[in-house]
């Protein structure tokens, strides 16, 4: 009966990700310590969470933790805990009032596995020789207990001990690197608030080197055998960073790393302060260069400014895709307008059954979301004018930096800066199925 009482009524935060997140509280800080064995893919962890109640009389907290065994839970306010499926329920001895905080330390271990959801699998995965953690959208519980919702942003300290012949990268600033007899202990601090799905560690036989010529510290993390290919493929990274800072405002984090696995990857991925690419993207071809630009742009749109729920994914992918076209023009290739009209033509030939602002769980990452989102932004730019549009983009980041947003927030800001008539244009692109015409260039 105790187990049933704790897990029978589980909260959830996002209808696209049922069984994830608890909207009744947030986490202000995660202190994560890991010991990882490459052989056997075994992880031992200790997570100390500083939680803050968002509702009065909070007597149970529900955390997300997948496929790992809880060894112990400690906390001065804890009465008991139950781990069932992916949910770890903490029953409190006394309820928390809204705004009150408490700390809990969870020890756990096991073999981390990706988290399956209707939108796809995500989380901790073994490479041929190392680890990649790609948690978007629901994979964070594969390696640490968390309140797995994008609007529960927190600061982090991530410490991981791994064999000394491996290089470890995590989010934020590296504040420690200490070698023991058989391991190296790496410590990183993510000081700007971060959604759980953007937390990551990358483990491989890498070396890190700086990329000169940028205001922001840039580096590449890559196997030495791939260094020359990396330098060629990422030669424009400093200029790309400068272009996006001019268009969107200052880069929002302390540094940016590009990690390249020796494995080939189907798609690259962004985490806060870094992006991860497969070795198959070490190319000067446009299909590789556009993805390098795409992942960098996510640092502004997706990481600094983050959606509240997955239905508004176009606010991430539309801006990132549009940034590809902006970079094309800055690099002296096709203009933004040329790229936009080519993709408008392609979209016009597809079935018109997608609502950009609520695509449904099975179409969250459909390519039409990316391209139609970018086209919506281009339509706003053509209507409002170049200066007004980029004023909107910079204000969007400045006003909502390190926070969470909805499409309604974007529409309100666009109405303020571009005029009230822009709302009808946004509604046409975001909430109606038929593909609208692009305004004249």
TrEMBL record:
The keyword Hydrolase belongs to this UniProt entry's keyword annotation: yes
GO cellular component term, pick one: cytoplasm
InterPro entries noted in UniProt: Aminopeptidase_N-like_N, Aminopeptidase_N-like_N_sf, M1_LTA4H, Peptidase_M1, Peptidase_M1_dom, Peptidase_M4/M1_CTD_sf
Keywords: Cytoplasm, Hydrolase, Metal-binding, Metalloprotease, Protease, Zinc
Gene3D superfamilies: Neutral Protease Domain 2, tricorn interacting facor f3 domain
This protein's record includes keyword Ligase: no
Catalytic class of the enzyme: hydrolase
Compartment list: Cytoplasm
Sequence ranges assigned to domain Peptidase M1 membrane alanine aminopeptidase in this UniProt record: 239-429
Cross-referenced CDD domains: M1_APN_like
Domain of life, per lineage: Bacteria
Sequence positions that bind Zn(2+): 294, 298, 317
Catalysis performed (reactions): Release of an N-terminal amino acid, Xaa-|-Yaa- from a peptide, amide or arylamide. Xaa is preferably Ala, but may be most amino acids including Pro (slow action). When a terminal hydrophobic residue is followed by a prolyl residue, the two may be released as an intact Xaa-Pro dipeptide
Biological process annotations from GO: proteolysis
Annotated EC: 3.4.11.2
Active site per database record: 295, 370
Domain Aminopeptidase N-like N-terminal: 28-198
Cofactor: Zn(2+)
Family recorded in the similarity comment: Belongs to the peptidase M1 family.
Protein name: Aminopeptidase N
Organism encoding this protein: Flexivirga caeni
Source lineage: Bacteria, Bacillati, Actinomycetota, Actinomycetes, Micrococcales
